Amino acid sequence: MKRILGTSLIALALVACSNEPELNESASAPTPPAETPEASADTSEPSTDEQASFTVADAMAGSWRTDEEKARDAFRHPAETLEFFGVDGDETVVEIWPGGGWYSNILAPYLHKNGGQFVAATFDPAASERAAEIVESYKANYAASPETFGDIQYVVYGSEAAPMGEPESADIVLTFRNVHNWMGGGHADKFFEEAYRILKPGGTLGVVEHRLPSSMEQDPSAASGYVHEDYVKGLATAAGFEFVEASEINANPADTADHPFGVWTLPPVSRTADRDGNTPEGFDPAAYLEIGESDRMTLKFVKPAPAETPEEPADGE
Fold first, then answer.
1. What is the reported pTM?
2. C-beta of residue 141 within 8 angstroms of C-beta of residue 125
3. What is Dmax (Cα atoms) for the chain?
4. Which label site among 188, 209, 231, 308 has the fewest CB atoms less than 10 Å from its CB?
5. Which value, in Å, is the radius of gyration of the alpha carbons in the chain?
């Protein structure tokens, strides 16, 4: 199976998008477990026993995840995050801009083994040749192991793309550290409107994003990668969502959000110079490694179900 390294995928993504995704958003595409003839032929639905026994923790421990991916678990808390968003395994879940598949490598096997459906909303391949290459590589890697990842469905999200999927077709929509990208591209409002459109009434929107302290000024283009929590809430409520709850699962109080290269100063990117190769005098990379990954908001929204209309009384009542 052809394997695309994370650094290669991010190089493509930087050209494909009008803004800069994080390096860790485009982590290595999955390495499937060794296949046997029986395994590659087995595309049947999981049994009830399999559904009851395969957990998020099992997916996190999967051999298809690299050591580098697993090292991020301590910062990203995938089990706790997915539990907070109410992902039980039997739903239709859409992940927006999955990059190289860090969360996909957990979500797809978990949903497949529990009777759910994973949907990846990729970059728009029509945006550029590079974007098309990213999408093609992502699809090819997952298609090689349907017994592990199931039959992944695909839709497209982009500033100029057609509507993302069918109306009211998803139970849950998830986005991890992408809102700043859409702010930079000038289409963050479009994302929230599209998420609202494809969710079923009562469906959940889960958002994880780098958090800018409220005392700091919000750049409308989010060039630092950090976003005010209230700004995200405003985008969601303007699209029709109701705010449900916030969690501090992915908080990091050591992150001051004022670093020389924005959020990309911190690991796992750990940038040490700007695009021209300049490094600030006295810059100490070790200090940023000690901070760890960014402070992140974790927000849960719901698409409200329509109010029930009282029945008209029968004639004569």
1. 0.85
2. no
3. 86
4. 308
5. 20
